[in-house]
């Protein structure tokens, strides 16, 4: 319920808006977030007018989706969301700090990463907790979160784009809204009890090396920082190598009223009246970390006024930067409602890059929430003045031509779907992101890390996804980055061995070498399982083959013929780990030793030689040369029959929910492209029915609406493409594979571009997934794929859909998708 004080603030703010004074500040807040809409086709009567109305941030917050429901903006740095607890202050209820099934919180943290898989994941910096009662002991000593935490019910929780609200059972409540680098909060307390606000400065999800807080009673301000990092630092497969610091987050909070009391704590020592404290928690867990750390609290007299407003800015550069970000983005008298309205408008603008028509409300909700999650990253890490932290540990400033510095690159995941969607819908952001990754590499000894968090090289996963990502950006028409400099740097990484490539530090899950064992790889044409310094030799070979093929295509576009020919040949190295006699019945991708022998015993269900997947899954991970893979399997018909067995049980029933290592796993990335492979095998109707089966039974609404970790928007981007009837053909290419759209109409209007792509499927419904015919720009189209110019330049697609498979469309000679390495 809105308090009297809150109503008065809101009315004063509206009065200021009417006078025009603060409206300028809100206009400045919105200016960098919106852009002029692209030209568009005439809207249908049933077109979604405001996509933001169809977003449910709670989708994926249970069942391992690892999304967070808190307040954030597109590509924003601040993500203000609850940190839940199950009774261990050194752990969380889910990888990203929030689980829908756990209704006890110990604070509202300022930063989050969408869908990371490590538990705990990353960030969760500076939880701020409204506490009802006296602070008479150190909150850090409350290791079981029994006292300084609170329960809540979902009936008192509301999450929407840019805003989060919840009422706690203690009687306190939090109402949070954000800009890109700042936020404003209203904390309400009962009138008959002490009101305190705890700043748990050291309590990031993974712990911290150190933290600092200062309380200024005269200015009504709380400032400080946390020195932290350690993404995936608790993993058993190499995480101990990543228990290290690589960024410092600064915060600057100001209040609209005086403090009635203040205090700090360090470990188990409470210091009432103190205004400064220092101390970190370390990067371990349980008893090795419990009871360590520091923070501070401020109190308020609620006898006459039980509503407290806080404005807060953050920065990865400096405390001054945090204050400057706050002043630049949040007007002095801005209310939560005002900032939330600006944020909602910003989200609506971004989401309107795709406008769908028709479809039941659950379908719209699933679609626009997936788009919402896909557009949460990359994340800004530069201040409003353009300064950002480099991988060399010093601040830098974005150069001319670059709008902002971005980070949080889950490369192994994102290069398969999310980066293509980013390039399609937000090409300017994609270009800035590409330049950002190049900037990081230049301050990291020329090394492109595969999983960048803030300004840290975490080395998580395997392969060289930066090569695939930037090649994809370029193929899809992104040009606002130093393409020549980026290609030269990535080509060097792919051809010149680096000392880290012989290191086993962090292996297998976080090997330091970004092209591990490169000299041996180039000599043998595969990564040897017994000498690769990588997660798995077979997986590394497949990943590098994909990356090299993508680089080859990029080189061709740049006119670098020599490099293109060299890299194109390397794109076929996957053949050197395909064993046609892996089992008595079929060939599989299989790891090899340096002497050429196959790693035995072999089991298609085993992950030996692979990374987070089985041989049965990875055997299909040759998106750049599906025709070649089919030939290795004995021909297209045999390959298609094997693919049938990948999606079905022996009795013919579907097997698309995961859990069986011999079959499709929708929860992880190595096989998510597999449903579209039928297009290359001359049986596109099976792509149509398989994709629709996954869309309608694996994805959905509600907290369990995602099949697994969202992995920085990757799983959500998969859904967006599937609903549109398009999917990226292969990394480094702009061509798209076709299937039946989910909505009768979709208009894709890329930000900052004048062209649009319209997709019409008048008969689209849950029961009509099959394609009977397609027209491109009004002309009949007989192939199951699109030329890259359509995604780059726009146009029109018209689908004739049916409730029965059409086994004639796009199946004739030359009609199948040309997924062959040499198909330039």
From TrEMBL:
Glycosyl hydrolase family domain boundaries: 322-802
Domain of life: Bacteria
One Pfam family cited in the UniProt record for this chain: Glyco_hydro_92N
Domain Glycosyl hydrolase family 92 N-terminal: from-to ranges: 54-315
Gene Ontology CC annotation, any one: cytosol
MF (Gene Ontology): carbohydrate binding; peptide-N4-(N-acetyl-beta-glucosaminyl)asparagine amidase activity
GO terms for biological process, alphabetical: carbohydrate metabolic process; glycoprotein catabolic process
UniProt cross-references to PANTHER family, sorted A to Z: PEPTIDE N-GLYCANASE PNGASE -RELATED (PTHR12143), SECRETED PROTEIN (PTHR12143:SF39)
Protein name: Alpha-mannosidase
Organism in which the protein naturally occurs: Streptomyces antioxidans
């Amino acid at each position: 319920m809105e308090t009297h004080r809150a109503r008065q603030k809101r009315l004063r703010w509206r009065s200021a808006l009417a006078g025009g004074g603060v409206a300028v500040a809100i206009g400045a807040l919105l200016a960098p977030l919106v852009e002029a809409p692209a030209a568009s086709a005439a809207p249908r009567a049933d077109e979604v007018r405001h996509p933001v109305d169809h977003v449910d941030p709670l989708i994926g917050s249970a069942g391992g989706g690892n999304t967070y429901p808190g307040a954030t903006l597109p590509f924003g740095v601040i993500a203000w969301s609850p940190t839940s607890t199950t009774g261990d202050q050194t752990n969380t209820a889910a990888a990203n700090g929030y689980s829908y099934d756990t209704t006890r919180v110990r604070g509202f943290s300022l930063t989050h990463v969408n869908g990371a898989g490590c538990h705990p994941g990353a960030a969760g910096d500076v939880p701020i907790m409204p506490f009802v009662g006296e602070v008479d002991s150190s909150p850090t000593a409350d290791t079981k979160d029994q006292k300084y935490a609170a329960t809540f019910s979902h009936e008192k929780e509301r999450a929407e784009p840019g805003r989060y609200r919840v009422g706690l059972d203690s009687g306190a409540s939090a109402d949070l809204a954000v800009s890109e680098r700042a936020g404003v909060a209203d904390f309400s307390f009962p009138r008959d009890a002490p009101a305190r606000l705890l700043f748990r400065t050291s309590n990031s999800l993974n712990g911290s090396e150190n933290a600092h807080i200062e309380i200024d009673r005269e200015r009504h301000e709380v400032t400080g920082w946390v020195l932290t990092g350690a993404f995936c630092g608790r993993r058993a497969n190499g995480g101990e190598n990543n228990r290290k610091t690589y960024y410092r987050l600064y915060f600057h909070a100001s209040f609209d009223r005086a403090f009635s009391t203040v205090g700090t704590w360090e470990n188990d020592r409470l210091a009432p009246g103190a205004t400064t404290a220092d101390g970190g928690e370390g990067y371990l867990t349980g008893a090795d970390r419990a009871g360590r750390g520091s923070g501070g609290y401020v109190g308020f007299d609620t006898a006459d006024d039980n509503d407290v407003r806080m404005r807060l800015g953050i920065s990865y550069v400096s405390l001054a930067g945090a204050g400057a970000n706050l002043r630049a983005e949040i007007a002095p008298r801005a209310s939560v409602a005002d900032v939330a309205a600006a944020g909602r408008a910003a989200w609506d603008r971004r989401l309107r890059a795709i406008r769908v028509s028709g479809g039941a409300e659950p379908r719209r909700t699933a679609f626009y929430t997936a788009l919402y999650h896909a557009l949460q990253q990359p994340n800004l890490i530069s201040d409003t003045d353009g300064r950002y932290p480099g991988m060399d540990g010093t601040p830098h400033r974005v150069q001319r031509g670059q709008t902002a510095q971005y980070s949080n690159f889950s490369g192994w995941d994102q290069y398969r779907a999310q980066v293509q969607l980013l390039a399609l819908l937000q090409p300017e952001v994609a270009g800035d992101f590409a330049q950002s990754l190049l900037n990081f590499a230049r301050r990291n000894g020329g090394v492109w890390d595969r999983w960048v968090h803030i300004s840290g090289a975490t080395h998580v996963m395997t392969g060289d996804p930066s090569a695939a990502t930037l090649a994809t950006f370029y193929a899809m028409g992104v040009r606002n980055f130093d393409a020549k400099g980026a290609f030269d740097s990535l080509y060097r990484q792919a051809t010149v061995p680096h000392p880290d490539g012989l290191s086993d530090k962090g292996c297998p899950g976080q090997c330091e070498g970004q092209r591990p064992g490169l000299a041996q790889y180039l000599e043998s044409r595969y990564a040897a399982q017994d000498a690769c310094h990588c997660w798995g030799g077979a997986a590394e070979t497949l990943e590098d083959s994909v990356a090299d093929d993508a680089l080859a295509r990029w080189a061709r576009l740049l006119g670098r013929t020599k490099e293109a020919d060299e890299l194109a040949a390397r794109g076929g190295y996957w053949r050197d780990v395909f064993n046609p006699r892996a089992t008595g019945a079929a060939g599989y991708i299989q790891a090899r030793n340096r002497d050429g022998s196959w790693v035995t015993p072999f089991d298609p269900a085993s992950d030996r030689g692979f990374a987070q997947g089985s041989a049965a899954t990875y055997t299909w991970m040759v998106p750049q040369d599906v025709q070649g893979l089919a030939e290795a399997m004995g021909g297209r018909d045999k390959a298609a029959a094997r693919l049938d067995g990948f999606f079905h049980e022996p009795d013919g029933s579907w097997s698309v929910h995961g859990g069986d290592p011999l079959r499709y796993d929708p929860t992880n990335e190595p096989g998510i492209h597999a449903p579209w492979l039928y297009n290359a095998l001359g049986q596109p109707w099976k792509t149509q029915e398989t994709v629709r089966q996954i869309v309608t039974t694996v994805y959905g609404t509600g907290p369990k609406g995602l099949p697994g970790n969202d992995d920085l928007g990757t799983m959500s981007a998969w859904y967006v493409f599937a609903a549109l009837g398009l999917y990226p053909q292969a990394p480094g290419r702009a061509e798209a594979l076709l299937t039946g759209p989910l909505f009768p109409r979709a208009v894709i209007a890329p930000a900052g571009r004048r062209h649009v792509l319209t997709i019409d499927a008048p008969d689209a419904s849950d029961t009509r997934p099959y394609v009977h015919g397609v027209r491109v720009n009004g002309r009949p189209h007989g192939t199951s794929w699109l030329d890259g110019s359509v995604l780059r330049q726009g146009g029109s697609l018209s689908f004739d859909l049916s409730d029965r498979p059409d086994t004639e469309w796009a199946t004739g000679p030359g009609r199948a998708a040309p997924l062959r390495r040499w198909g330039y």
